[in-house]
Amino acid sequence: MPTCLPTVLRRCHACASERFLANGKFRINANHKLLDAWLLVLCTACGDTAKLTVLERMNVRSVRPELLDRMHDNDPGLAAELLQDPVVRRRNRIALDWDNAWRLDTGGSDHLDREVSDVLDVSVRFAARIPVRPVRLIAEGCGLSRAEVERLITEGKLVSAVRLSGKLSGDFTFTLKR
Question: Phi/psi of residue 80, each to 5°?
Fold first, then answer.
């Protein structure tokens, strides 16, 4: 589950840094019946503000009132939703860095207290579409090293219907045979 907003990866026009922090603040501009809306992000190096386009030249009547209210209230939940929206990311040519912006909630440590011969069926559910390496999740959740998880995969003692190498951002299940 996410713990904070991810770092936005985009080049700063003032200092050539490539990291911005979103704090959930929006700017809305109305020109007659047309609206523009931006999510404001701050450069981590120089503090300069950049605007990520959310709405561009939209008719006021075509914007949902709830969305407009959330932007006026600077809703950080809306900022998180918009940062994860592929259309917004593509339009603004940004990428997200989720390092240190999520935590693993195992629901308790009772699975670590089982005997070594047990078979462990685990279902992983994402609270947000955060791209994470399954090997890292499994290592942290089961109290193993990443090398040990890799060894269990090659030995066939850790199996899943999805590919465990690379990154995933959707729910998956795996079985661990000790």
Answer: -65, -45
User: Rounded mean pLDDT of the chain?
Assistant: 88
Angle, alpha carbons 173-111-123 (nearest 5°): 15
CA distance 100 to 95: 16
* Residue partners of 118: CB distance under 8 A and separation at least 6: 178
Residue listed under structure tokens 């209210």:
69
pLDDT digits (tens, 9 = 90+) for 50-89: 999 999 999 999 999 999 999 999 999 899 899 989 999 9
Q: Would you state the structure tokens that stand for residue 132, as one six-digit string?
A: 């994470």
> What are the pLDDT digits (tens) for 116-153?
457 888 888 888 778 888 898 888 888 889 999 899 98
Neighbouring C-alpha atoms within 13 Å toward the C-beta of 148: 12
User: 6: which DSSP letter?
Assistant: P
